TrEMBL record:
Pfam family of the protein (one): Sugar_tr
Localization per record: Membrane
Organism: Anisodus acutangulus
Protein family per UniProt: Belongs to the major facilitator superfamily. Phosphate:H(+) symporter (TC 2.A.1.9) family. Belongs to the major facilitator superfamily. Sugar transporter (TC 2.A.1.1) family.
GO cellular component: membrane
Broad class of the protein's primary localization: membrane
Protein name stated in the entry: Major facilitator superfamily (MFS) profile domain-containing protein
NCBIfam families associated with the record: SP
GO MF entry, a single one: sugar transmembrane transporter activity
Length: 483
């Protein structure tokens, strides 16, 4: 009887407490809903501003990449350059980017993400000024090499910085803006390059660098980098500045600190240490995506779009304008979808479209070579190229950079990021250099080869690449390296 009485009293107390708990939680949730819009805008305002400042580096990247195409004839005429001299001017950009890729990780780890962006902007400014004042091939090449170095550093540090400052629900979309702004930079260079002289076009490359350098005085440093180097007070100030003065950062700060403390127990790594078993999963994913992104043919097709259209019998100027217009809105669509659909679905849809685009273009060259349905061949070619460009822009262009910025633990992020970026730029050089040789060998076979590589990328994504949507960086890195 005594036990029954005690149980009855306990059950009554539980019944009394339960409604109070529910009412309290309900009241808190109602308060959050009432204040949600203002808090959400306030909390994320600095994140949006920081992202805007960082992607000015991405726009500068696109301006560098798109500069040579509309200026080729004018530069050659004004400075009396041979084809070989201008080819060196165009290709040396990639060598500068490879050097930048090698050094980008250690630099970003040593002087911070903001410091790396400042240094990269300085190289781009120096390069553009050298091109503007150039009176011969040497000054042009030095300037192009400097801007290429800046591109290589930007290609690593911008997505990493955005991934480290963004809330988990916005990280994919904000990181994808990196690729969107690269596309915008290329398209703007293509369009205004037809209206301005080549020297004036070089000066326009200074604008995004100036905005970036000014904005870096306003935005905070990456909190995760500050925590990594032990600057505790600055870490908390930066995180609070990003999340808002009224936001509760205790849970996020504790999670970051716990993860940093765990990583500090691990030995410091260099490039050769990356190949240890513990890092193999993240290394395979990051480097593998870069290999498939580049060796699927993007830079060969991008650099020589006009000649592809001419070879197939389609007007090159019309095709190039359509190409420049289509990639920006489709890249924007990918940015909107990445945090809703997820990384893997976008990669799989993109890979499928790349295969279809290569097959259509290859078939058009096969028909033309065998003089079958000659009127249909140009239409197939332009359709295939546009499907290819659209598919690349929506997924394979941006998502590998997003995944790379997410999967590497912070103690190897510098070395691993440098390796992945170096592989990317080497692939860009190899693809663009071999494209004309492959087309001379067999146009149909070239696109069938690219189709095969893109088909392999689909299998790679299905089997190897993890889904990272909606998870913190610490959760992603702990899971992938534990597996």
């Amino acid at each position: 009887m005594k036990e029954d009485i005690e149980q009855s009293e306990n059950s009554v107390q539980i019944e009394i407490r339960a409604p109070l708990i529910i009412q309290t939680n309900k009241r808190v949730n109602e308060e959050k809903v009432e204040n949600g819009c203002n808090e959400k805008t306030q909390n994320r305002c600095m994140v949006y501003l920081s992202t805007f400042v960082a992607v000015c580096g991405s726009f500068a990247f696109g301006s560098c990449a798109g500069y040579s195409s509309p200026t080729q004839s004018a530069i050659r005429e004004d400075l009396n350059l041979s084809i070989a001299e201008f080819s060196l001017f165009g290709s040396i950009l990639t060598f500068g980017a490879m050097i930048g890729a090698i050094t980008s990780g250690p630099i970003a780890d040593y002087i911070g993400r903001k410091g790396a962006m400042r240094m990269s902007s300085a190289f781009c400014v120096a390069g553009w000024l050298a091109i503007y004042f150039a009176q011969g091939a040497l000054s042009l090449d030095i300037g192009r090499l400097a801007t290429g170095y800046g591109m290589g550093v930007f290609s690593y540090v911008v997505p990493v910085f955005i991934a480290e400052i963004a809330p988990r629900d916005l990280r994919g979309a904000l990181t994808t803006i990196n690729q969107l702004m690269i596309c915008c930079g290329v398209s703007v260079a293509f369009i205004i390059g037809t209206m301005l002289t080549w020297r004036t076009l070089a000066l326009t490359g200074l604008i995004p660098c100036a905005i970036l350098l000014f904005g870096l005085f306003i935005i905070p440093e990456s909190p995760r980098w500050l925590a990594k180097i032990g600057r505790q007070k600055e870490f908390e100030l930066a995180l609070r500045k990003l999340r808002g003065k009224d936001a509760d950062i205790s849970e996020e700060a504790a999670e970051i600190q716990d993860y940093i403390e765990t990583l500090e127990k691990l030995p410091k790594v260099n490039l050769f240490d990356l190949f240890q078993r513990r890092y193999s999963s993240s290394l395979i994913v990051g480097v593998g995506l870069m290999v498939f992104q580049q060796f699927g043919g993007i830079n060969g097709i991008c650099f020589y779009t006009g000649s592809i259209f001419e070879s197939s019998g389609f007007p090159s100027d019309i095709g190039t304008i359509i190409y420049a217009i289509i990639q920006v809105p489709i890249t924007a669509l990918g940015a909107l979808l990445i945090d809703r659909a997820g990384r893997k679905p976008l990669l799989l849809a993109s890979g499928t479209g790349l295969v279809i685009g290569c097959l259509l273009t290859g078939i058009s060259f096969y028909l033309k070579g065998h003089e079958i349905a000659l009127k249909a061949a140009p239409t197939l070619a332009v359709t295939g190229i546009l499907v290819y460009i659209g598919s690349f822009s929506v997924g394979m262009g941006a998502v590998p950079w997003v995944v790379m910025s997410e999967i590497y633990p912070i103690n190897i992020k510098g070395a691993a990021g440098s390796l992945a970026t170096l592989v990317n730029w080497f692939g860009a050089w190899a693809c663009s250099y071999t494209f004309n040789f492959l087309m001379t060998w067999n146009s149909f076979g070239t696109f069938m080869l690219y189709a095969a590589v893109n088909a392999l990328s689909i299998l790679f994504v299905i089997k190897i690449v993890p889904e990272t949507k909606g998870r913190t960086l610490e959760q992603i890195q702990a899971t992938i390296n534990a597996s």
